[in-house]
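ugh ok so i messed up the first submission bc i forgot one of the chains. this is the corrected input, ALL of the components this time, i swear. 516 residues overall. if the numbers dont match what u have on ur side tell me asap before i send this to the collaborators (the ones from the other lab, u know who)
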Amino acid sequence: MEGQKRDTIIEVEGLTKKFGKITAVDDISFSVKRGEIFAFLGPNGAGKTTAISMLTTLIKPTSGKLLINGYDPVSEQDAARRSFGIVFQDPSLDHELTGYENMDIHGILYNMPKKERKERIETLLELVELWKRKDDQVKKYSGGMKRRLEIARGLMHLPQILFLDEPSLGLDPQTRNLLWDHIRELNHKENVTVFLTTHIMEEAERVADTVAVIDYGKIIDRGTPRELAERTGSSSLEEAFLSLTGKTIREEKAETMAQMMSSHMRRR
Amino acid sequence: MSVIYILWIRQLKRYFRSKTRIVGALGQPMLFLVALGYGLGPVFERAGEGDYVQFLVPGIISMSILFTSMFNGIEIIWDRQFGFLKETLVAPVSRVRIMLGRTLGGATVAILQGMMILGIALLIGFRFESLSGLPVALLFMILIATLFTALGTAIASLLEDMHGFQLIMNFLVMPLFFLSGALFPIQNLPPALGMVVQFNPLSYGVDGLRGALLGTYDIGFWTNFTVLALCMVVLVIIGAYLFSKIEV
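and heres the new structure output, hopefully the right one now
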């Protein structure tokens, strides 16, 4: 277990993914330190999910080097898979099953013995405050409860890294705040490295130790939220759009949204 | 082994928990059975072919199994984007085991559905030839269900989104059903139609089921069994291969 001793838990070098002519992720390099909360910040379609899919073995990179907890996700797939838990952008719970059953299946998929599964499910469901609802079918949960259950499930097999792809998507501000508190608490209690993506600057700023700003498949800036804030608005328009004054991002977004809406209305 | 088992159990739990789905899936076959069975019954009898409801029941059971198992396979398309599938795809488990668990689960649900149709048919007057035919009927149900769940899985593994779904229904599932002998006897067909029926694996399932329940085969037990078993093995292998290549 050489991976255990390393300081950096994720190492990425020259990572590229092409879909036909489109380059979704373009020659990115970065590393994530063990125990930190690392955020990928960028607009929709910037390549965040594609990057996460490569890190989590769901798609194969076109080129570049990847190490997850010291393992190559392509050639040491299962060892890499055991190292992380993931909360996908789209829901991935079985809604007909109960919260407990969803957790238990996860444990079986990760080859955990029965006794360990039982204890771990109780610990985690208590932690995300779902233990009382464990025997309800997931379809009866609220959006925030589902997200919490997915996070608990991602942590079930004691992973070293937890990937969260846009975890606050579709949640109201109250639930979102609670969620981030949970994530920080888990980061401490479980001593797990958290790798998350978001397109909301404030979130990255609030929760992350390190932020990498990504757009058009490239990392255009990185550092602590404070470092990034100090460099704000330094060069091109594009960078200003993405850089750290969340206000610009929102206005741009609102504008495009309004344009889309009006063109949609006209068509109708 | 426990991974296959838990994925199998999962599908059974899902099935029994959604009562609306059970009722919904029984509705269509019952409509076919009642409308066609009693509607065409007199004509069928005048043509000297005997009791049409008796003839039709094995065909409708096959139809129900075909639809349910294809659907359970094709379900992967939306499961991969909005469902549980991704959770299994990042787990440190071989894709083949996941595919087998899913396929066996989907097939079992389809078999249960088929047995329910048989149960209802018995209530409205269907009579099978002998008790010893029942295990044979079950054997054919297993073959049909596994074959078509694997086919659905294979197709779903190739499709990116749901746009292809209507295409599959109209150009694959419906022809498989209508051109199988589920609704009409397959002797003395026009040559072209007879040819198509011959290349349809469901024809062998329908004949197998009909033979098992009514006592007389048109094609013959061993031919039915061999064709179905071979198709099933080939499709499970193809399905497992394509499933293992899915990228999300």
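quick check: Chain A touches chain B at residues 53, 56-60, 77-79, 81-82, 86, 88, 90-94, 96-97, 101, 105-106, 108-111, 137, 153 (CB under 8 Å). that seems consistent at least. The radius of gyration of chain A is 19 Å.
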